[in-house]
């Protein structure tokens, strides 16, 4: 019996193939507390089908995971999210979303390796969960920008007030975004790229 098929062998979708013009690839990490929108941002902006490791939340997390403000959330990232976006014909960003629950933060070390920069996503309803996140980035010396995810009904604060509350240096960009929208999420990544470029230029001038 001949099991050979006349169909061509399966391969990657055309949309998933890295452009031949790509000359540089940059690893970027999307960080933040539980339920701030990291998986949503990666999924919204990725030009390939994102890889997610979301699992249904179980009773094991009761009393362990802080779900205040996101009580309706039924899934959580247990390892990472992964996506890709071409900023232009030559520059490609590989996006790695970290798990938000503190019991999975031990995975951050591996995800940070080789990362050129990071995006910190904030939820103004739960601003306090961002302090440890920012502290970890500062300890590792990872440059980052802060993006305030605009959840419906969330309190709105002037960005400079948020900067002061988070004790951010004046040079660190902070902006508002909607992680559900591709254009808004892409603007966040472009802001990070401009910030990294300006930092590199400053270091070269020293």
From TrEMBL:
Transmembrane segments: none annotated. Keywords: ATP-binding, GTP-binding, Hydrolase, Nucleotide-binding. It comes from the Bacteria. The keyword Cytoplasm does not apply. GO terms for molecular function: ATP binding. CDD domains: Ras_like_GTPase (cd00882). Pfam families: ATP_bind_1. Belongs to the GPN-loop GTPase family. This is ATP-binding protein. It comes from Streptomyces virginiae.
């Amino acid at each position: 019996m001949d099991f050979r098929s006349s169909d061509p062998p399966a391969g990657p979708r055309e949309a998933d193939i890295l452009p031949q013009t790509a000359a540089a690839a940059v690893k970027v990490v999307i960080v933040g507390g539980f339920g701030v929108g990291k998986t949503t941002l990666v999924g919204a902006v990725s030009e390939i089908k994102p890889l997610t490791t979301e699992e249904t939340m179980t009773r094991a997390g009761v009393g362990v995971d802080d779900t205040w403000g996101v009580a309706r959330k039924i899934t959580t990232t247990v390892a990472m999210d992964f996506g890709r976006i071409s900023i232009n014909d030559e520059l490609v960003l590989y996006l790695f979303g970290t798990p938000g629950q503190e019991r999975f933060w031990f995975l951050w070390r591996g995800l940070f390796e080789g990362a050129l920069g990071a995006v910190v996503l904030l939820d103004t309803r739960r601003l306090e969960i961002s302090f440890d996140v920012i502290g970890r980035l500062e300890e590792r010396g990872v440059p980052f920008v802060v993006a305030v995810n605009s959840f419906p009904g969330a309190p709105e604060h002037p960005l400079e007030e948020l900067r002061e509350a988070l004790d951010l240096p004046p040079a660190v960009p902070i902006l508002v975004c909607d992680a559900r929208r591709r254009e808004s999420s892409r603007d966040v990544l472009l802001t990070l790229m401009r910030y990294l470029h300006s930092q590199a230029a400053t270091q070269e001038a020293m």
